[in-house]
Amino acid sequence: MMGSSGFLPSGSLLESLVHLSNEASSIEKLPFVQGRNISTMTRRIKVLTSLFEEIKEANSTATQLPPSSVLCLTELFSVIRRVKVLIEGCKDGSSLWGLIQTETTSNQFFVLVKEIGRALDILPLSLLNLTADIREQVELLHKQAKRVELFVDPREVQRRDELLKVMASNNEKNMKNAANRCSIDIEAAKLVFSSIGLRSSLDYEEEMSKLEAEAQKQAGTGGLIVVSNINNLVALVSYSKSMVFSEESKKDDIKQSSVSVSRNTDQSSSSQSMSFNIPDEFRCPISLDLMKDPVIVASGHTYDRNSIAQWINTGHHTCPKSGQRLIHMALIPNYALKSLVHQWCQENNIPLMECSSNASESEINSKQNAAQKAVDHISTTKVAIDSVKMTAEFLVGKLAMGSLDIQRQAAYELRLLAKTGMDNRRIIAEAGAIPFLVTMLTSNDPRIQENAVTALLNLSIFNNNKILIMAAGAIGNIVEVLELGKTTEARENAAAAIFSLSMIDDFKVAIGAHARAILALVGLLREGTTTGKRDAAMALSNLALYGANKVNIVVAGAVQLLIELLMDDKAGITDDALGVLALLLSCPQGLEDIKKSRALVPLLIDLLRFGSAKGKENSITLLLGLCKDGGEEVTRRLLINPRSIPSLRSLAADGSPKARRKADTLLRLLNRYCSQSHNPVR
C-alpha cells in the first residue's frame, strides 16, 4: 500500500481503523498511574474515530481514496495500535513500576501525539467529503498535536519520590547496619501504596505478581540493575503487606498468661539481647525477646519456637495475639524471617549462637563466610524462595486441617502463587499440595472446586508436576469437573488442564483411555463459551496426535460439530477446529464423516482466501486429503465451484512453503482429473 501509486482501495483499512480506535478509546476506568495522559489521549482518538467513520460513510460507494489519504490513515493505524498497547500496559501492568517509570511513560504518550500530528500533516482535508463540524475538529486536533508539550503529572512525581525514599530504606544494597533495615516508614509506604490503589491484601498480592511478570519481561532488555530494582520493589511490597495487615493485631495486649510463659524463657539470652535495639518485628510477641527460631502457627502469627511450644504445652489452644482458636498445632518454620534475623545479627556483630542455639561453631563460621561472599541479588532471591516455601507449607497446612472457608482461601492463594514462576510451582508441589488439591476437585463448594482445578492447571505448567498430578490419580476427578463442574470457569480450566497434561505422550494414551474424557471434551466443545470451546478443541487436538484416540473422537460426534463451529461466526475457534479436522482426516472413520458434509468444501475454498496462515494450511490439507482419498465426488464438488481454481493458484503463489506445495499438488491432481475428462484446468 505504501509503495503503490494512484488511487488505492481503502474499505478494509477504514474498517480496521474504526475497530481499533474504538478499542483504544473504550477504557472504562482510568488507572491510578498516567490517568491524565490516558484521558487526554482517548479524547484525541475519539475525534479520529469520528473522522474515520465519516470517511467510511462518505466513501461507501467508492473503493479508492487519494494516495496521501491512505498514507495518512496507514500511519494513524500504526500509531493508534501503539497507543492501545501503551494504555493496556498502564492499565494491566504494575502500578508501582509505572510510578517509577512515570517520566518515561509520559514521554511515550508525548511522542505518540507528535506522531499523530505528523500523520495529519499529509491528510488532504480539502479532497475528502467531510462535514464542517468534523473538519473543524480534525483541524483543531492537528494544531494541538503540533504544539503539544510533554506533560508529567506532578502528583505522580511526588508519589514516585516518596516511593524512592521508602525503597532506599529497604534496599539491601545500602543496608550497612540495623537502622537501615528497620527504619522503614510503614505509614509512608502504606500512603504511597494506597494512592495507587493498593488497599487490600489481595491488591498487594496482585501487585507482587505484576512486578514479578515485569521482572521476567525486563530480564532480556532492562539489564540487571532494572531487574534488581523490580525485585527490591517485590521485597518491599511483601514486607509492607506483612506489616500493614498485622499492625492492628500488634496493638493488642498480650494476655496475662503469656507473660507468665515469658518468665520461663532463657534469662541470660534475654538480658544480652535486650542490650541491643532489637526491631519489633524480630521480637517474639510472647517473650519480647529476639526470635531464635521463628515459627508460624495456624492463625498466621509468628512466634519463637520455644515460647509458643511452652504456651501450647501448658494447655492453651488459642493464638496468644489474636485469641483465635488454633485449628492445628503444627509449627511451620518462618524461613524468610529467620534469614532476616540472621542477617541483622551479622550486621550488629551479635554471635549467631545467640540466634540459633542448635548451630555449631563450624556451621556459624560457614554461614558467616557464605554471607560475606553472597551477592545482594542472590540473597534477595534466597529470601524470596524461602518466603515461597514458608507460604506454601503454611497453605498446605490449611488445606489439610482447615474449615471450608479456610480451605477455600488457601486453595485460592495457592492458585495465585502457582500462577507465575517455575520455582513457585516446584516449591508448592514439594510442599505436598497436589494430593490435597486433587481431593478438593470433588468438593461440593463451587469456589473450592474452581480454585483447586485452576491451581492444578497452573502447577501442571512445570513438567515434573504433570507426572505428580497423574500419579495422584487426578485424571478421573478432572474429567468429572469437566463434565459436571459447578462453575463455567472450573469446566474450562479442567479442559485446559487436560491439554497441559496431554503434552506428555504417555499421558495422551492414559487420558484417551479414560471412558468419559473425550466425550466430556466434545460436550464442552458443544456447550461452552468461546474460551471453553477453544480449550476443548486444543485438548482434542493434542489427544488426536495418538492414533487410537482419533476413532474415539470421531465416535463422540466431533466431526459434524467442528464443521458447524466453522460456520459459526461467534464461535471464534476456526483455526483450532480446522486443526482437529485435519488430524481426524487420517482416520478412516474421520474421513467418512468429513466426506458427508456438503457444506465443508465451499467453506474450505473461502478459507483459502480469507483464513489465517495456519487456517489456509489446514484448509488445503483437508481439501487435498479429501480429493486423494474421498473419490471423484469430492473432486467434482471442488471443480464446479468457480472460486476454487483462482484460490488455489493464489495460495500456490503467495502461501507458506507448506501451503504452496500442497496447493501445487492439488492443482496437478485436478488437472489430471480434468485431462482424463478431456477438459483440463485453465
Automatic annotation (TrEMBL):
**SUPFAM superfamilies attached here?**
ARM repeat (SSF48371), RING/U-box (SSF57850)
Q: Which pathway, metabolic or otherwise, does it act in? A: Protein modification; protein ubiquitination
Pinpoint the residue ranges of every ARM repeat in the record.
Answer: 432-474
Alphabetical keyword list: Repeat, Transferase, Ubl conjugation pathway
Substrates-to-products reaction catalysed? S-ubiquitinyl-[E2 ubiquitin-conjugating enzyme]-L-cysteine + [acceptor protein]-L-lysine = [E2 ubiquitin-conjugating enzyme]-L-cysteine + N(6)-ubiquitinyl-[acceptor protein]-L-lysine
U-box domain residues are 277-351
Pfam families given in the database record:
ARM_PUB (PF25598), PUB10_N (PF25368), U-box (PF04564)
The answer to whether keyword Membrane applies is no
| Ranges annotated as biased composition (Low complexity) | 257-274
Which superkingdom, per the lineage? Eukaryota
What ranges does the record give for the region Disordered, renumbered to this chain?
255-274
Q: Which InterPro entries match?
A: ARM-like, ARM-type_fold, ARM_PUB, Armadillo, PUB12-19-like_N, RING-Ubox_PUB, Ubox_domain, Znf_RING/FYVE/PHD
Q: What is its EC number?
A: 2.3.2.27
Cross-referenced PANTHER family: U BOX DOMAIN-CONTAINING, U-BOX DOMAIN-CONTAINING PROTEIN 1
What is the protein name for this chain? RING-type E3 ubiquitin transferase
Native organism: Hibiscus sabdariffa (roselle)
